Amino acid sequence: MALNEADTCRLHVTPKLQAAGWDTSPHSLNEQQIFTDGRIFAGGGSVTRGPQKRADYLLRYTRDFSIAVVEAKPEGALAGTGLQQAKEYAEILGLKFAYATNGHEIIEFDYLTGIETTLAVYPTPAQLWERLRGSTGLTDSKAQQLLTPSLISDSIAPRYYQEIAINRAVQAVLSGKQRILLTMATGTGKTVVAFQVCWKLWNSRWNRAAEHRKPRILFLADRNILVDDPKDKTFAPFGDARFKIEGGNITKSREMYFAIYQAIAKDEHRPGLYREFAPDFFDLIVIDECHRGSAHDESNWREILEYFAPAYQLGMTATPMREDNRDTYRYFGNPIYTYSLKQGIDDGFLAPYRVHRVVTDVDATGWRPTKGQLDRYGNQIPDDDYGTKDFERVIALRARTEAIARHLTDFLKRTDRYAKTIVFCVDQEHADEMRRALSNFNQDLVKEYPNYVARVTADEGDIGRGHLSRFQELETTTPVILTTSQLLTTGVDAPTCKNVVLARVVNSMSEFKQIIGRGTRLREDYGKQFFNIIDYTGAATQKFADPAFDGFPEIEDQEVIDDEGNVIGDAEDGSGLLAASNRQAPVTGDAAAGNAADSRDDIVRKFYFDGGQVSISAHVVYELDADGKQLRAVQYTDYTAEKVRTLFRSLDELRDEWADPLKREAVVLALSERGIEFKTLAEASGQPDADPFDLICHLAFSAPLRTRKERAERLRKMRGDFFEQYGPQARAVLSSLLDKYCEFGPQELILPDILLIQPLSTYGSVMEIAGLFGGASQLKSAIDDLQALLYAP
Question: Which of 282-295 are b and which e, b meaning 16 or more Cβ less than 10 Å from the residue's Cβ?
C-alpha cells in the first residue's frame, strides 16, 4: 500500500535531505514552513482568515538565507505532481531552486538555467551555494559578507519578503550597484529592512574603500518624525554609533548618522551644512520616502544626493512608478524588489479596508453664492459654481465642515467612539475648523477627555508631536481623533488607527497610498483586523478606479447624509452617486497645488461663508471585479451569489456537496473564508427562516426559496418509507432531529453533540440511542440518509 504524504515525508524525504547535509549547522531544513498569515476577509459583518501558504520544506543555507523549496507528494503520485506548487512558492520566496518529490524520484527546477532535471539525491548545501554564488559574480569574501547574520529579536524578525529585500539590497551593494531602489507598500516594514541592511553591512565591515573599518551611513528623510522614530527605536541596537545632524551641529566620529534634508540643505542664510562633509565621507545613504522630492530633477535636495555621488544610495518608497514620481525611478533605476499593497493584503500582513463614500449635497451638485453675497469678513464672494476641489481652498463653507463632523461623530457612535481616527483636511486652518466642530459634537467625551480631538499640523510644533505620540501609543485612550493636513501622510506608525477620513481631495496616487497606509497595519491583539476609509470627497473612489491601483477594498459603503450629518438613506444602486462622484472627481492643476499646501500663504485668497445649510446626499456596497481592476456597486447578496458561482458551476454540483455532511463543512469553510456568514446573509436578504442551502441556491442560481420548515414537512410527507424502516423510538429520534433542524438549521445535525441536549437526551445516552438503530454506524448512516433526503431535488 502506497504511503500518504506525511509518511512519505517522514520515511523518505526527510532522511534524504538529512543525508545531503541540510540539517547540519549553519544549514537547516524547515518542515511545514508557514510563510504567510492568510488574508483577512472582513465582509458581511464578520472577520475571517484565509489559508496560509505553507511549504513542505524550506532549505536554508544559513539562518537568514533561504535557498530552495521542496514540495512532497504521496508515494503513489508522480514526482512532478508538486513541481508547479514548488515553483510558485520559489517565485514568491525569491528562490532559484525548486524541488518536487514522491519520496523516491526528485525533480529539480533550476531558475538560473531554466533546466528541469530528475535526480536520485538532493544537492548538498555547498553545491547549491556554489551554483548560486557563481551566478551573482560575488567573490568568496563578498559572498561571506552577504551571509552576515541579521539581528533577530522578539521585535525584529524579518518576514519572508523582508528577508528577500534585505538580501537583495546587500547583494546589490556588494555587487557595486550604486543606485538601489526598494518599493514596499506602507506598513510592510521598510524601516526594518533599512535597519537590517545597515546592520549586515556595518557588522561585515563593508565600506566603499575596502578599508578595515565599519561603514559610515546616513539615514535621510524630509521630516523629523521619519528620522527620530527609526533612530530612537528600530536603530537603537547601533547604540553610541548613532548621531542626528541638527541645529547646525555635526560630528565626524560616528558611523550611523540621521538627518532631515532641511537641516543640512542650503537656504538663503547658509550654503548647506552637508558641505561640511567631504563628498566621499559616507559609504551608504538610505533615503526614506525617496519619492517625496529628493530625486526630483529640480529639487534643492537633489543637490545633496549629487554632492554625495560617491556613496551608495538606497532609496525606499511605498509607491510604484507613476507620472508624479517618475524622477525617482529615473534617478535610482528600476526597483530591485517590489512588495505591493495587494501582496501585503493577500498574504495577511496588512489590514484590508472598507470604504464608505459619503456625499454632501454641495459636493454632489455644487455651491453658488447669491448675487452680492458677502463672506464672514464682508468680502463679496465671486459668482461661480464651486465644487469639491474648491472647498476650503477658494471657499470655506462652515456648514459643510459641520455636516461632515456630525456625520463622522455619528459613525463613531455606531461603531466605536474610541477607535483611533485620522482626518485629512485641506490645510492647517481647515484642520482647526474640523477639530473644533468634532470637539463640539463630542462634548460629552471632551468633557471627560479634553484632548479627545486634537490637531496635529506643522503649526502645532511640540504640542502636536505630543498629541501624535500619545495617539500612537497602544495603551493610551486619547487623543482618539487627529485632524491634520499634510503632516501625517507619511511615516506615522499608528497600528491601532481604525479610521482614515478624507475631507480633502487627493490627486496624487503616491500620496493616496501613503494616506491609506496610515491604517494598513494590523494589531489583532487590539481588535484591529481591518480599517475604514471614510471618503467625503470622492478621492478614494477615483483612485480605486485607477488601473494602476494595486490594492483592493473589501467593500465600499456609500451613504447619504443631511445637513445635520444624519444618514438619510441607502442607495439601492450606485447610479446617482456614481454620477455625483464623477461630477466632482476631476481635480488637477491648481487643485493639486492646493493639496500640497500646508499654510495659508500657499493658498489662493479664500472666502468664508458661515451661513446656509449643507445636507448629506447616498449605502451602496462596492468591490473590485473578478480581475481586481475596477470598483463596481454590489450588494452583500450579490457578492454572495458571485462567490458561490465561482465555487460551483451548477445547482446540482452544489447540492451534491451540501448533502454530504463532511463535504458540507468544506463548503461552509470556503464561504466563510470569503467573508460569507449565513446569519449575516439571512439578515441581509430578509429571510431568517430560509435553509442556508436554499438561500445560496436562490441567490446564485435563482432556485426556489424554501424555509427549513417547508423542507422538513416535505421530507415527512414524501418519504414516509424512510421513517417506517425504523422502530417507534428511532422514528421519534429522527423526528426530534428534524424539529431541531427547523429551529436552528443543518448545523444541528452533528453527532454526537446533538444527542446530548434536550429533547434528544431524554431518549437515553448516546450509546442507548445508537442501540435504537442497531449500533453507532447504523445511527450515523440513518442521519446521513436523513440529510441526503432532506436536500434531494
Answer: bbbbbbbbbbbbbb
Cell of 419: 477607535
**pLDDT for 55:** 96
> Could you tell me which residues are beta bridge partners of residue 184?
339
Tell which phi-psi region holds residue 479, choosing left (phi > 0), alpha (psi between -120 and 50) or beta. Answer: beta
Q: Is the confidence at residue 584, as pLDDT, over 50?
A: no
Find where cell 529579536 sits. 153
C-alpha count within 13 angstroms, C-beta hemisphere, residue 67: 24
Average pLDDT over residues 750-776: 79
DSSP state of 555: E
Residue 429, C-alpha cell as written in the block: 486652518
Binned at pLDDT 50, 70 and 90, residue 748 comes out as low
Phi, psi of 428 (to 5 degrees): -65, -40
Q: In this structure, what DSSP letter does residue 541 have?
A: H
Q: How far apart are CA 162 and CA 173, in angstroms?
A: 17
* CA nearest to 302, candidates 310, 311, 293: 293
CA 581 to mean position of chain CA atoms: 25
- Nearest of 694, 668, 226 to residue 465 by alpha carbon: 226
Report which of 463, 531, 543 is spatially closest to residue 494, judged by C-alpha positions.
531
- The C-alpha atoms of residue 288 and residue 295 are separated, in whole angstroms, by 11
From the list 632, 614, 606, 565, the residue with the least C-alpha distance to 363 is 614
Q: Which position has the grid cell 511640540?
A: 462
* pLDDT score of 43: 59
| Spatial contact of 491 and 601, defined as CB atoms under 8 Å apart | no
Give residue-wise pLDDT tens across range 36-69. 999 887 655 567 788 899 999 999 999 999 999 9
Rounded to 5 degrees, φ, ψ at 560 are: -110, 130
Per-residue pLDDT tens for 605-657?
A: 799 898 888 866 543 445 434 333 444 444 667 778 888 888 888 888 888 88
For residue 176, what are the contacts with CB-CB under 8 A and spacing of at least 6? none
